[in-house]
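Message: I would value a second opinion on how I read folds in token form. Give me a protein, with the fold worked out from its sequence. Write it directly below this note and I will take it from there.
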Amino acid sequence: MSTRRLVILAVALAGTAFTLLPVCNAIFDCGCTWPMWGAADHCNIHHPGPPDCPLCTNWALGALAAGTLFVAWAGVLSVASALVGPRR
């Protein structure tokens, strides 16, 4: 595997880890936030009763959302890498 692909995958993984919870909050208005501001500490799963954030309560749905976001990041970074310059 080329260095360029490894860098794209590493940056996509970092982007996913950094943006998953803010995207969750944007979709479900659950209180999840950026990692440096508490991440899921403010999520509504910590309050008794519904509504509960579907990504935080269902690991399969959370994993699907994380995988989808990772693929999106990897796709955007791959296209950007192709537009920036030719491979050596």
